[in-house]
Amino acid sequence: MRLFSKKVMALPEDEILTFTGSIAPAEREKLWAQGKLIISTPQVIENDLLTKRISLEDVTHITFDEAHRAVGNYAYTFIAEKYFESAKNPHVLGITASPGSSDEKISEVCQALHIENVSVKTEKDRDVRPYVQEKKIEWFQVQLPSEMAEIRGYLEKIFDDRLVTVRDLGFSVGNGKYVSKKDLLLLQKKLQGEIRIGGDPAVFTAMSVLAEMVKVNHAVEMIETQGLEPLRKYLEKLDAEASSSSASKASKRLMDDLYMRKALYKLKECEVEHPKLELTRKLVSKQLKGSSDSRVIVFTNYRDTAEIVVNALSESPEISPIRFVGQASRRKDKGLTQKQQVEVLDKFRAGEYNVLVATSVAEEGLDIPSTDLVLFYEPIPSEIRSIQRKGRTGRQHKGRVIILVTKGTRDEAYYWSSKNKEKKDAKKHARA
Questions:
Q1: Which residue blocks in 244-363 are alpha helix, DSSP H?
Q2: Predicted model pTM
Q3: 208: helix, coil or strand?
Q4: Centroid of chain to Cα 140
Q5: Fewer beta carbons within 10 Å, N or C terminal of the chain?
Q6: What is the pLDDT of residues 63-78, one digit of tens each?
Q7: What is the mean pLDDT of residues 36-54?
Q8: Computed from CA positions of residues 204, 209, 210, 212, in that sequence, does the dihedral angle turn out positive or negative?
């Protein structure tokens, strides 16, 4: 995000400033008075506006990078609102590689940022073409091992049992037998609304059962798309919750279920690893053997999986992997500070590490070097996130994108969901 105060021409370095949370608020207030071009994270500007340390009155222009974020309660919407309230002559530019696949999403962003004109550029445009390299996109399918399929079967029995209970209570969820996470969350939101206005006992019962279904649904996703170790860690966490003095009835009921006990028993004796792990090792190894200067990013949705992938890749002598996660710490998993993130990226750039195993934190907003290969450990249903990930390769030279898909699982559903949204997005751009 960039803010220009007064008229900006060629500026001396001391008038181009960077604001982050690591700079003390009082120091930012002083710097604001002397800077003419300020490059900042949106949260910092939002905080300084709320505490009245700064004013946008004299700001002549704001550029909102990754403008698709300007929805809901994100800082961009607040900053734009305050800017158009106070600035003498407001002027904004929103830029993004992934505005969204629906008119509604794009309109929401435009409305939030007070944007009146939209310019669409594609890779085929004359002024864009010289800066875009070819990307080869491939997807590799793997089969879920029978031992994992058995564990999944136990979890699905628990889910189906709870689904019948919710429907018997008179609540509709999903379409037929298949029920997605989105369906569960939509019903949860609806029931929460009914509770606020005084719902009947059936609503409270359904909410409790839904809480179990959300947990089981996540467990099924773990076994299908991640493997045994992430599932073990997740079920250990649920077991700890159920054993605590503050445990909910839903947690206790779930962990006492006969089929959950069967799943836990099978999980203890099962030693197979998800086939994605070995395939990732082979694909990354082959890429790096082909070029000693090559760089690879492996994207995974979960921190536990990122750690497992790093350990697996470390077994190959030509691979020097490093895990790259966000700043937040979760239970025993400590996040990376902003300083640590910069250090990791510098070492990746220099070649000390040649593989970055990253969660969503690496999708956008960070200065990550261009890579030769981006590997999706699992597909993601969001076309915006998919586009952002793919954009991490094919910058200076040809790039390659590989997507791993477990047959007959939600991997396939997520893959086609994202692909269809991207096609829809491309058609909109073509018409524009």
A1: 249-256, 258-269, 275-290, 303-313, 338-350
A2: 0.76
A3: helix
A4: 21
A5: C
A6: 999 898 898 889 999 9
A7: 92
A8: positive
